[in-house]
Design a protein that fits this description.
Layout: E1 3-12, E2 15-25, E3 30-34, H1 41-49, E4 56-61, E5 64-65, H2 70-75, E6 77-80, H3 92-102, H4 107-120, H5 136-147, E7 154-158, H6 166-181, E8 185-189, H7 193-199, E9 202-207, E10 210-212, H8 216-221, E11 224-228, H9 231-240, E12 245-250, E13 253-260, H10 263-275, E14 280-285, H11 290-295, H12 312-322, H13 363-371, H14 373-379
Amino acid sequence: MSIKARNLTRTFGDKTVVSGVSLNLSSGQITGLVGPNGAGKTTLLLLLSGLLAPDEGEIEIEGVSMSANPSSARKLLGWMPDDFGVWESLTVFEILEAFGQAYGLRGSELLHQIAHVLALVEMEDYRRVSAQTLSRGQKQRLGLARSLMGKPRVLLLDEPANGLDPIARLELKRILQDLAAEGITILISSHVLSELEEMCDDTIFMNHGQVVVPEEDQAELFPWLLRLDKPEIFTNWAEEFELPYQVRKQRGRDYFEIMLATDDDATLLRQTMEMLGANISELFNDGSSLERKFLSLEPEDPLPLRSERDSAVSRIESAAIAEGELPARTEATGETLVAGDLGPEKPVQSEMSAQPGREQDFQAKTKEEERAIPEVNDAV
């Protein structure tokens, strides 16, 4: 294993920020680190980088113990924090030269490594350009190049795509995939879930300082989403028939999403809802969505999932027919009912969303330690 961590725990005062985290990452693997704000992601990256010592637990980088041989372990690491800063008075070449020297590179080896990392991040033409003139995307690529100067086997990246435009994000994704193809292990924390889903081989979910398993069964058992307007009408109705659902805000509007198990269920419920006059916004299969798994980390009021073989959708149709709200399927009729006939409106009682939080700000500490060349020399 390229990275092995066992039972990592870190507290600050009476607050446990990382609690009993264990993980194993293989060489050449890109792993996403996902979780709400305050989950402990940045603290975990700081622990793995050796910039922060765990209260408990062990870390091995390529088989080298971080506690027993910190200098040797750190030589194998490249670390790119969210807010890394640049020496704006220096050129791109001068910045990389300083970091290369801090890692012990000299002469032709130093020049070769600078040329190599500039080629990797496609900045060969910027070597003599002042850092203060670089765009946000170019500075991010410079930060990545800087983290590669020590020839690491492991890269730890905290929100590397933060603030980048779509083109710059695509470029960054391609660069990281090329690095993984060279056998470099990458652990990347990001809130851009769609890009993580496309790029990563695996995903680690964190919440409240722990590695957690999202409710994948829910996404697997109910991969179809039927999206409707007016959640205030349908919430009570879905609870009555014990259908898993969520109320979500998208582009400033509230949507009601019913989770369905099969293609037949999805088709049948759509037909039923259309006959009732409901306004169906979308019907789509979203069972593998990383966003679905992220949203399941901390549901506010999760509903029980039905495991019985009988379809909830069939029960809905049968109930509607029994109450005279729908004609039997064998009868030909053009009669429809409006959605309001489903029952009295009630306030929304459940909303599936990750609980917001606040993670302690360690970036200032990180920047100070990175700027201290003697500290880097000692690490190398």
